[in-house]
Amino acid sequence: MSLSRGCDSLAQTQRTRLQHRRARINQQINKEMRMRTGAENLFRATRNHKVKETVALELSYVNSNLQLLKEELEELNSCVEVYQNDSDSVSVPMIPLGLKETKELDWASPLKAVIKDHYNEEEDSYKEELKALVDLRQAMRAPSRNKAGLELLTEYYSQLHFLDNRFFSPSNNLGLFFHWYDSLTGVPSHQRALAFEKGSVLFNIGALHTQIAARQDRTTLQGVDCAIEAFQKASGTAPILPFHLGEGGLVL
Q1: pTM (2 d.p.)
Q2: Each residue of 99-124: b (16+ CB within 10 Å) or e?
Q3: Fewest C-beta atoms under 10 Å: which of 92, 117, 150, 178?
Q4: Does the pLDDT value for residue 249 go beyond 60?
Q5: Per-residue pLDDT tens digits for 26-38
């Protein structure tokens, strides 16, 4: 069989251009990440109220740029699906929620201590399980914008309930700080309460539903139904958030 029959020179040119655009966007993302790290360090170090306001504003700009860059990169990565949509109809655009971002977290060390001191078991007996938890937490930091991403977030959210029942108590928070960034302003926040971690993950589940809904082709009946279903699921997370965050009003 001739290889030329399976080769589309135009598509190859498009892929090359996409690769160059991806490389450029990734470089810009790395630059913005370094700027955000510096701004975050200054935000924590300074005690000057005006400086904090200025840094918070700068963080909001950086976070907005990051969100736009990541959305642009996501569109490039899903460009094949976009090309398959041949509809020329005009529809009102939907506005999805951005995902909250978080820092890396080491679950293994504090959980090993509880396993040894409280349950009197060898921590190495659960080495694989702890590694799986750490890997799951790391993976859910950047979920894919599809059903698989939702399943990833939901799986980690479920694991948090098991951890809450077995390893957390009012007198024991494992000494962990959960770091998350505000989805709109980019201002960092960190708390010891596991409810903060739960609420942030639940927020991302709802936000991801809105992104999936906004991507549907609403020029077709099936696309409209899928968009409605996704937006309904997104709204379903809202009543649960106060339940997890409690009366203390933990900041999202």
Answers
A1: 0.66
A2: bbbbeebebbeebbebbeeeeeeebe
A3: 92
A4: no
A5: 788 888 888 889 8
Task: Measure the CA–CA gap between 200 and 197, rounded to whole angstroms.
Answer: 5
For 243, the 3-state DSSP assignment is helix
CB 63 within 8 A of CB 32: no
For the segment 119-140, what is each residue's pLDDT rounded down to a tens digit? 878 877 888 899 999 999 999 9
Q: Please say whether the beta carbons of 223 and 217 come within 8 A.
A: yes
Q: What is the pLDDT of residue 136?
A: 92
Amino acid 19: pLDDT: 57
CB neighbour burial string for 170-201, b if at least 16 within 10 angstroms, e if fewer: eeebbebebbbbbbeebbbeebebbbbbbbbb
First vs last C-alpha separation in the chain: 58
Q: What are phi and psi of 66, to 5 degrees?
A: -60, -40
Tokens of 40: 């975050």
Contacts 24+ apart (CB under 8 A), 152-158: 153/201, 153/204, 153/205, 153/208, 154/205, 156/201, 157/198, 157/201, 157/202, 157/205
| 153 closest CA partner among 82, 211, 78 | 211
Q: Which residue has the tokens 């930091």?
A: 141
Beta-strand (E) ranges in 13-111? 101-102
Q: What are 216's two structure tokens?
A: 């549907």
